[in-house]
Amino acid sequence: MRKNSKIIKANLILLGMVLFIFCFSSVYAASEVLKFKNSEQEQRYKKLTHKIRCITCANQSVADSDATIAGSLRSIVYQQIRQGKTDEQIMQFLMARYGDYVSYEPPFKLSTLFLYLGPLLFILFGLLVLFKTIKRRSLESADLELSQEEKARLSLLLSPKPESPKPESFKQEQ
């Protein structure tokens, strides 16, 4: 019986070690190993991959994304940097191929007009609503003016009344 418990214990330890290795080895497998001619190219690569938006991810750069398309975009950027293309040429190539959405800083043109003017339109709309609301409230308060007859009746209701004589029974109880 002791032999069985020792075997079970050894198997459990072995299983734990195998699970540990499988769990943490995937962390190292995901990193890309890229070789650049110099550190300037590497800096350009890092800068560009942070400026390029992942097409399938929700507002995430290709540098931070694990999506397959992000890996493809990183590969394209790497190849074009190695070919000696400028940052502008690389961005133009990607925007021509994938659209303006791929850039966090899309160019100002007809298709991106609402993107740039949208916030201004929302502010102007908010100011218009605010102006109309203030104007409507000032008109409503002007309609609340009392007529002369209503003012006289109000002053009569609010004026102090002369004291009425107190009954005798009330005076004696005090």
Structural features, described:
The protein has 174 residues and is mainly alpha-helical. It has three domains: 1-31; 32-107, Helicase, Ruva Protein, domain 3, CATH 1.10.8.640; 108-141. Helices cover 67% and strands 0% of the residues. It is built from seven helices and no strands. It has helices at 2-29, 39-51, 68-82, 87-98, 113-143, 148-158, 168-173. The protein starts with a helix and ends with a helix.
Main β-sheet description: none
What would the principal axes of the Cα set say about the shape?
A: elongated
The overall pLDDT average reads 82
Q: In percent, how helical is the residue content?
A: 55-70%
* End-to-end C-alpha gap: 102 Å
Per DSSP E runs of 2 or more residues, the count of β-strands stands at 0
- H/E element string? HHHHHHH
Rg (C-alpha, Å)? 39 Å
Number of domains: 3
H/I helix tally: 7
Beta-strand percentage range = under 5%
CATH class of the largest domain: Mainly Alpha
Structural class: mainly alpha
CATH topology of the largest domain: Helicase, Ruva Protein, domain 3
